[in-house]
Design a protein that fits this description.
2 copies of one chain form a homodimer. Chain A has helices at 2-9, 13-17, 32-43, 79-89, 124-136, 160-166, 179-191, 200-206, 208-236, 242-273, 309-351, 355-389, 395-425, 428-472, 482-491, 499-515, 521-544, 558-580, 582-585, 592-616, 622-651; strands at residues 22-26, 54-57, 72-76, 92-94, 100-102, 145-146, 149-153, 170-175, 293-296, 303-306. Chain A is an alpha+beta fold and 652 residues long. In chain A, helix 13 packs parallel to helix 18. Chain A is globular, with a radius of gyration of 29 Å. Chains A, B: It holds the Pfam family Anoctamin.
Chain lengths: 652, 652
């Protein structure tokens, strides 16, 4: 009873001393000495090799009847520490003259939003990123192991947090949602009707790394509008003659080249505004799962595990590659079964056409779509296992290998049947029908798996917690106390990065760019899907998942490449579809050879034009190029001045 | 009589005070006050905005009866000045631990070849490059015009040398050949027989910027050996069946992809060893011919002429592009005339075949080859004029536009007829014959125009000078005194950069990669040409031309792109040639359509493999990647330390 009272009296007692930004959870059986040691290292001054952060144990919440993990810690930092951390990281902020510059403490008054002591200058996401960076680079000194845990070996220079994570002593480390900001964000994000889909600036403040994904989602959605506008009359007026489809295919070609080029420019603009375009990446630490023989890193000179590259290459090319190929073969096999089923349903319908056999016609496609989703899911786990086993040193290299594996399989799974129908069976009616079924089924499945299922699970947990809390205290205050809030967030699902979201957009882009000339409504469907995606993603980020750490990126990386590869394939596919259309065939009545040669020639020409366009259109808009050049020029001039000063010193 | 004596007594009087590195020639009617002013600015201390270099007027040479330009100046610098200039430029030199680092005066003792006061640490080419840089960045202060030349306007920050050049007050500025070094170089370059073709390290010391071209030439020559080895038996044993040509074409495909990828790695290794891989380019000044309305550069903030980009684009796309297309059309027209002549000669030979009509068969090809060379020459001048008129701000942009124009036309001119014969006429015998004629004629012409003609002209001048000198002095000393040597060099032709040399290699690469499967001897011919090219180029650089300023480059730039484009075209061409071969046609006896579809599919597959290979093979070899990463890591760590120190200062 007393406990409850004291909690209600000072619900934010902790936050009066410092704003908790990041939570850190250790397993409940962590030794007392390990905790003391860790907290001391976190609090220690930087000159002693500490992180110089503020840390406090979370008080036990309500419901002591349940088994609660007491080892939850809240981490914050003083304003001064955050600002020096920002300088350390080379954070780019807006300068007084509107350009973006690397933040420095000595120059802080000249930054645009810096007022007073600098409170509110850094966004919450930036503060959390700084704290994460400082914790990540907290290195062992002369400890040989974590105190009390002899199995968790340490050596000078080893990142402590990563060792705790890899040995399972640390359960997780996650940034906290900021209730007030979140409320404002959710309102402007998915509760307000507006012209632009998303408040990108505000999203960027909260989810720095994911903001570029949301930027891309919004861009892609708007880019689909012209395609959708052109597609609708085709559907409404039932323009089934291929004559008009040729026009549509040509438009399609131009569209997918142009939007990707413009996206690069738009992305550069966004990244510049957000200060991530020219931020230098710190040297990546080995990822937690990486293992090897202890040695010295040739670059940093630090002691760390080394794993021979040749051995990794061997695993990649001799195990992973054959496995992927085998999976592709398996997927091909499944596809063939689907076509047999399809044929069987068709023959049944032809024999004795009733309403039920008409429904039966759709069954194989639906089964196939579901099977594909299941296969994708299984394959995904296998790919993760294999990529883990390949033992990549860097998280980025792990991600790239994983993305490549999953991408190839998903692409094959989703499009192989369509290619087969289009180019082997040459059945445009079936193609249209398959495309529609695939598109709609996978959309519904995706939305369900992605947002509603996690939401429903989270809601159950949430309600349980609420019920427990309200049972124990008066109804007057609907807010959860911080103790409960943190514990609630600790139980939330972890947001696994933008991988699945990009993959979904990639496949949708494929449906539109490859085949929309036979099913013009595809663009409309994808457009609708994107709009709901904006809302479900927003919802997911704000309500369902733990807040993710921001991961500043200057571009969408390997995905840009994937989308461009898709647009090249689109040129080939569209040319082939045009070449196969009876309308075009009519121009070459006497010889198919002439037709094919012309198609191939035009396709090569289009590809050449595409590459030349890519080369001619600068990836970074002129004004930003000038800003970047200006910054570089100034730093060169500063260097020169420094050299001259040094020269004078050496003369003296 | 007295004058002559004093000259002989102290033939290197100047060089006792300083080693002359660069010569500078003003027009003979330059006003005295302009000369005084210029020399004073060159000699002035850096803190007063001078260049702090040593400069001396060249004494009049022998032969006062002739009109000599008295305004020739020799420029040198103190060792200290050169070293600080090297630091200023960010020159990369080999460090004690074998890595390449930016040179700094404070750290000079830790560089590998730094001994004593540092004499001989910088190569002559580097010293000359430093002096050129210092002269180029000698800027006007508050002068409104060059004293005595009111038409040569100046404004604060304007490069003085560039204004003098653009107003024709300065005739030229060129680095001097160093007799002793040159002798050693010429010996090891083209007088000694050796395994590697060229002493690349020594060439690099002397011709820094051109060294990468010589590196490429050597690499390309060695890369041709496997092609040549495979080509010889084809020629010797008269393997005329297309069966074997298919194998050759496949080999060709692999070869041209692999050598370009490996070259990138080799080039990175060379550039790293020479310290140009990661050297930062200084901000480019506007080129001397650039004109516009005076304004402020948005990047540097300096006053300089501005020219609207839109206007330039208009000139490029509305004048230059149509002009190039028109020229291509004209070239096509000439080609058609050639085919008519060819047909006429053939019919004459068929009617009444004699020895002379047999010779006549070769005449059209030879005429065509000569006409092509002439057309190329005329077009070249037009392209230079047009590119000049487009008014590019930067030399690099001017060069790229010029290269593109010349490249397209040359490519078209050289290969259009071959494509026509191969794919429209489908006459492999004629193709082989044309290829041989084109290859041999253009080689002979090139070698003549490039080396022998200039050499002959230079020899005449040289002899005249020698005769004059020997007439006036005793025979004992065969060396020219420095006064005469400098004047002789001032009269030498100017080396116009590696443009023509690269272009030649590009076209030769085209002959080999596109069509060598129908004329396997092409590789052998090109190999022979390359070997003579090494010698004639070496000879040209050492004996015929003024020494060029070095122009450090980290790669071969736009040429890499051009070669890669060529290798893509080679894939297409070779696939088509294979598809057209009767041997392959025999596999698809019933339908041409099947054959074409397969050919196209395989071609697409090969292109995809090519792009994936390009993507997979890292452009920079692993050891160099590690070195670069190490350097970057160290600079990041240093920055961090500095920030921390600053933080401490600000705390104090």
């Amino acid at each position: 009873k007393k406990k409850k009272g004291s909690l209600i009296d000072t619900p934010f007692r902790l936050s009066e001393r410092f704003t908790p930004l990041v939570a850190l959870e250790l397993v409940s059986d962590t030794k007392e000495e390990a905790i003391t040691w860790l907290l001391q290292r976190i609090r220690d001054k930087q000159r002693n090799g500490g992180a110089e952060l503020l840390v406090e144990q979370l008080r036990p919440g309500l419901g002591v009847q349940e088994k609660q993990n007491p080892n939850l810690f809240l981490i914050g930092a003083s304003l001064q520490r955050l600002l020096s951390g920002a300088e350390d990281l080379g954070l780019f902020k807006e300068f007084n003259d509107g350009s973006m510059r690397g933040f420095t403490c000595t120059n802080k008054q000249n930054f645009k939003d810096f007022q007073g002591d600098g409170d509110g200058f850094l966004s919450v996401a930036e503060c959390q990123y700084i704290i994460k960076h400082e914790l990540d680079t907290l290195r062992a000194k002369d400890e040989s192991h974590v105190p009390g845990h002899t199995q968790a070996k340490l050596y000078p220079g080893k990142s402590i947090i990563r060792r705790l994570l890899s040995k399972g002593i640390m359960v997780q480390m996650f940034p906290l949602h900021q209730k007030e900001e979140l409320k404002r964000l959710t309102f402007s994000w998915y509760k307000k009707v507006k012209l632009s889909l998303q408040p990108l600036g505000k999203i960027q403040c909260n989810y720095e790394g994911q903001a570029l994904y949301f930027g891309f989602l919004e861009y892609f959605t708007f880019a689909l509008i012209p395609m959708a506008l052109i597609g609708v009359p085709y559907y409404l007026f039932d323009w089934d003659d291929y004559d008009k489809y040729v026009i549509f295919a040509v438009f399609n070609l131009i569209w997918c080249t142009v939007i990707l080029e413009l996206w690069k420019r738009f992305s550069a603009t966004l990244a510049y505004r957000w200060g991530t375009l020219s931020r230098k990446k710190a040297f990546e630490e080995p990822r937690p799962g990486f293992h090897g023989v202890l040695g010295f890193n040739p670059v940093t000179g630090r002691e760390e595990p080394l794993y021979p590259n040749a051995k990794r290459q061997l695993r990649v090319y001799c195990v992973s590659l054959p496995f992927v190929l085998l999976c592709l073969y398996g997927s091909l096999y499944v596809m063939m079964i689907y076509f047999q089923m399809e044929g069987w349903a068709l023959s049944l319908h032809d024999e004795d056409p009733t309403f039920w056999t008409g429904v039966l016609l759709f069954i194989p496609s639906i089964i196939y779509a579901v099977v594909i989703e299941v296969l994708n899911l299984i394959y995904r786990y296998a790919a993760e296992f294999l990529t883990e086993w390949e033992n990549h040193r860097l998280e980025s290299s792990y991600q790239n290998h994983l993305i490549l594996k999953v991408l190839v399989f998903n692409f094959f799974n989703c499009f192989a049947s369509l290619f087969y129908i289009a180019f082997v069976m040459q059945d445009m009616v079936l193609l249209r029908q398959s495309l529609a079924t695939l598109l709609i089924t996978s959309q519904i499945l995706n939305q369900f798996m992605e947002a509603f299922l996690p939401y429903w699970l989270q809601r159950r947990r949430n309600k349980k917690m609420m019920r427990r809390v309200t049972k124990m205290r008066t109804q007057e205050d609907k807010e959860l106390p911080i103790e409960e809030q943190v514990r609630l967030e600790a139980d939330m699902s972890t947001y696994l990065g933008t991988f699945d979201d990009y993959l979904e957009l990639f496949l949708l882009f494929g449906y539109v760019s490859l085949f929309s000339c036979v099913y013009p409504l595809a663009a409309v469907l994808v457009l609708l899907n994107n709009i709901t995606e904006v809302y479900s993603d927003a919802f997911k980020m704000c309500r369902v998942f733990k807040r993710p750490f921001s991961d500043p990126a200057s571009n969408i990386g390997v995905w840009q490449l994937a989308f461009e590869a898709m647009s090249v394939i689109a040129v080939v596919t569209n040319c082939a579809l045009i070449g196969m259309s009876p309308q075009v065939k009519a121009y070459f009545p006497e010889s198919d050879m002439q037709l094919i040669l012309w198609t191939v020639a035009i396709e090569h020409g289009l590809l050449a034009v595409k590459f030349i366009l890519t080369f001619l259109i600068p990836d970074v808009p002129k004004p930003i190029q000038i800003q970047l050049a200006k910054l570089e020029f100034e730093s060169l001039e500063a260097l020169k001045k420094k050299v001259n000063t040094w020269g004078m010193f050496s003369v003296i």
